[in-house]
Amino acid sequence: MSTTVFISGATGYIAQHTIKQFLDHGYSVIGSVRSHAKGEKLLKSFDNSRLSYVVVADIQQEGAFDQALKDHPEITGFLHTASPFHFSTDDPEKDLLIPAVKGTTNVLRAIADHGANIKKVLVTSSYAAMMTFGDEMNPSYVRDELSWNDLKWDDAKQNAIAGYVGSKAFAEKAAWEFLEMEKPGFQLATLNPAYVFGPQLFDEEVKGTLNTSAEMINQILKLTSADVVPKESGAFLDVRDVAKAHRVAFEKDEANQHRLLLQNGRFTSHVIRDIIAKRFPQLEGRLPQGAAESLAKILSRYCKLDDSKTRKVLDFDYFTLEQSIYDTVKQIAVANNW
C-alpha cells in the first residue's frame, strides 16, 4: 500500500502541482475542497485512482478537519496549503488574518487529537512571513531562514497588503507555538516561497485573471505599447519547484523543525517584460517599453537573500526565471489562440 498524505486547499495553484508531485512518486493523496463540485472536478482533472477528496467548507470553523482525520486513519502526512492570498478586501482582519490563523490552528488541533498516525506536517507559509518592509530595500541586510517580519496585528489590519503579509507571519508563528506548547507526536516544517510563477497544472485553469502571483505575468500581456510597465518586484520560484520542495521536505528528516526559504533570485516587472519580448518576438510591437536601468543596478538596492540552509536540505536545481516566464506565457498564448 502507498503512503497516504492529506493536502488542504487541494484546488489551489500550488496545491495542484503538489498533488501531482506526490501522485507521480507513488503516494495516495486525500485533498480537502470546499464543495463536492470542486472535488469532482479535481478527480476528473487528475484521473488517478490514488486521489480522493473530502469537503471542508470552511477551514475557520472549529473542528473543521476532525471528521476527515477520524475517517482516514491511514493518513501519515499532512500538508496545509490552504490560506487566503489576495488583495481584494476592505477588511483584512476578517478576510485574511483570522482565516489564516484559525485555519492553521484548526489543522494542528485536529492532527493532535485525531491523527495518531500522522508523523510529518508541512505548513505552506510565505516569504512574506520573513520579510520586513524596512529591510527589503537595505542592501547591507541579509535575510535568511530565521528572519521574521515585524508587523503587529493592528498594523496588519490597515490595508490588504499589510493584511496578507501579517497573516502569513501570524499563522506560521501559531504553528510553531502549537508545536512548542502542545509537543504533539509529529514533526513540523514550513515552506516559505516568494512570488510563485510558472504554468497552471491544467490548461483549463488559464482564465482571464489568474492567481495573484501568476497574474503579475498575465497583466503585462494585457498592456499595450502606450502603457507603462508596473513597478513590481520581488523574489520568485517556479511553482513546479515549490511543489517538488513540498515532497522532498516531506521525505527528508533534515527538513524537520526548519523553515525553508524558497527563492531563485529576484525579478522586476520590466525584467518579465524583456523576457517576454525576447522569447515571443511576435509580441514585441504590442508591449510597453523596457526598463531604462539595468537589472543589476535595480537589484543592488535590495537586501541579500541567504537560502543556503534550504538548498542544502532540498538539494535540487530550480527552474530559471526565463524558463518559468516562458512556460507561463506559452500556456496563456495557447489558451488565447495567439
Automatic annotation (TrEMBL):
Gene3D superfamilies: NAD(P)-binding Rossmann-like Domain (3.40.50.720)
Gene Ontology molecular functions: oxidoreductase activity, acting on the CH-OH group of donors, NAD or NADP as acceptor
Residues passing through the membrane, by range: none
Domain of life: Eukaryota
Keyword Nucleotide-binding part of the UniProt annotation: no
Keywords, comma-separated and alphabetical: Oxidoreductase
Statement: the UniProt record of this protein carries the keyword Oxidoreductase: yes
Domain NAD-dependent epimerase/dehydratase: 5-257
Family stated for the protein in its record: Belongs to the NAD(P)-dependent epimerase/dehydratase family. Dihydroflavonol-4-reductase subfamily.
The protein's name in its UniProt record: NAD(P)-binding protein
Annotated source species: Suhomyces tanzawaensis NRRL Y-17324
Lineage: Eukaryota, Fungi, Dikarya, Ascomycota, Saccharomycotina
